[in-house]
Amino acid sequence: MTKRFKPSQTFKSHEITDESVFSSRRRLLKSMGFVGAGALLSGSATARGWFDDDDDKPAFKAKPLDFTRNDSLSTDETMTPYAKVTSYNNFYEFGTSKDDPAENAQDFQVDPWSLKIDGMVRNPITLSYDDILNKFPLEERVYRLRCVEAWSMVIPWLGFELNKLLKLADPLGSAKYVAFKTLFDPKQMPGQRNPFMGGGIDYPYVEGLRLDEAMHPLSLMSVGVYGKTLPPQNGAPIRLVVPWKYGFKSIKSVVRITLTDQEPPTTWNRLAAHEYGFYANVNPNVAHPRWSQASERRITKGGLFSQNRIDTEMFNGYQEVAPLYSNMDLTRYY
Ligand code: MTE
């Protein structure tokens, strides 16, 4: 038996996310016929037994990484402890409950890995696992992460600017958007082979940004957290982090980045376009159709009874991105 991930402190999702919001988002999936049985499946000892059959594969072990700290782009707010960052996750490929990814992703193989950058570029490139970890000097940036479900964390990511990756590929002048894709591997990702466990999402998970958003210095490709390589549940070996947008834009375990002149499809928008827009900028003035976005529950050290509710800020407090949207009606382009 491989050793499963055990956070030093365990807690239930309802202790952190507003019960109403959490169940509301799950209710959408349930109404589509997916979550009920999925939650049952992913939480049951029997289901875990099914997914424990690759015992010869080594379980994940975080490795320390070299980095320099970028203070000017870091917040000094209290950081969310590692145990919570790595045990309260959204990664539906490994189950729809917050503790499913940490439970089900520990044997996820990230080496070998292949990240391809193609489409409307002069120089298409493919990076290996070692290229990804060694090619770019890493910075630590402490960013706020605001989930559309109205909880937030403060996380010290290790990574490099997405624009560095895109510049290597040399986008054509006609490229306007950047499309991202997560690995599709139903053998390793139980939620991809079982629609009940994966929330009925049409995999692979896909996301997109406008090219100017992707080139913004805040847009980060992250390979680590808290000084070490990313755990699988956080999107190993490489994920996107766009701190001024709702967390669902920050796509995990990326295998392909394609430059295009068309707005690319995005997973949550395809599932419920009236609830999740392409832009998904954090905006306290535009409510989700089923809950307010005016405030959020900040996940810090507090236990069961800590509320820690704070006001949500426009663009999650990253005002420097406002010029990207100066001519746009953000109630229409939510
Ligand atoms: N990427 C993939 N491939 N699959 C997912 O289910 N969930 C998104 C995003 N990226 C998701 C994903 C959502 S809804 C959020 S809030 C963040 O990942 C959560 O990142 P974290 O678990 O590292 O906090």
UniProtKB/TrEMBL annotation:
Q: Which HAMAP family match?
A: MsrP
Q: Which SUPFAM superfamilies match?
A: Oxidoreductase molybdopterin-binding domain
> Function, please?
Part of the MsrPQ system that repairs oxidized periplasmic proteins containing methionine sulfoxide residues (Met-O), using respiratory chain electrons. Thus protects these proteins from oxidative-stress damage caused by reactive species of oxygen and chlorine generated by the host defense mechanisms. MsrPQ is essential for the maintenance of envelope integrity under bleach stress, rescuing a wide series of structurally unrelated periplasmic proteins from methionine oxidation.
Q: Which gene encodes it?
A: msrP
Q: Which PANTHER family match?
A: PROTEIN-METHIONINE-SULFOXIDE REDUCTASE, PROTEIN-METHIONINE-SULFOXIDE REDUCTASE CATALYTIC SUBUNIT MSRP
Is Oxidoreductase among the key words of this record? yes
Keyword Metal-binding listed: yes
Per the UniProt record, which EC number(s) apply here?
Answer: 1.8.5.-
* Gene3D superfamilies found in the cross-reference section: Oxidoreductase, molybdopterin-binding domain (3.90.420.10)
Locate the coiled-coil region(s) and give their ranges: none
**Domain of life from the UniProt record:** Bacteria
Which GO terms are recorded in the biological process aspect for this UniProt protein? Answer: protein repair
* Catalysed transformations (reactions): L-methionyl-[protein] + a quinone + H2O = L-methionyl-(R)-S-oxide-[protein] + a quinol; L-methionyl-[protein] + a quinone + H2O = L-methionyl-(S)-S-oxide-[protein] + a quinol
Q: What is this protein called?
A: Protein-methionine-sulfoxide reductase catalytic subunit MsrP
Q: Which residues cross the membrane?
A: none
Q: Which cofactor does it need?
A: Mo-molybdopterin
Q: Which residues bind Mo-molybdopterin?
A: N89, Y92, E93, C147, T182, N234, R239, S250, I251, K252
Record-linked PROSITE patterns: TAT
Classification via InterPro entries: MsrP, OxRdtase_Mopterin-bd_dom, OxRdtase_Mopterin-bd_sf, TAT_signal
Cofactor binding note of this UniProt entry: Binds 1 Mo-molybdopterin (Mo-MPT) cofactor per subunit.
Provide the record's note on post-translational modification: Predicted to be exported by the Tat system. The position of the signal peptide cleavage has not been experimentally proven.
Q: Which GO terms describe its molecular function?
A: metal ion binding; molybdopterin cofactor binding; oxidoreductase activity, acting on a sulfur group of donors, quinone or similar compound as acceptor
Keywords of this protein's UniProt record, alphabetized?
Metal-binding, Molybdenum, Oxidoreductase, Signal
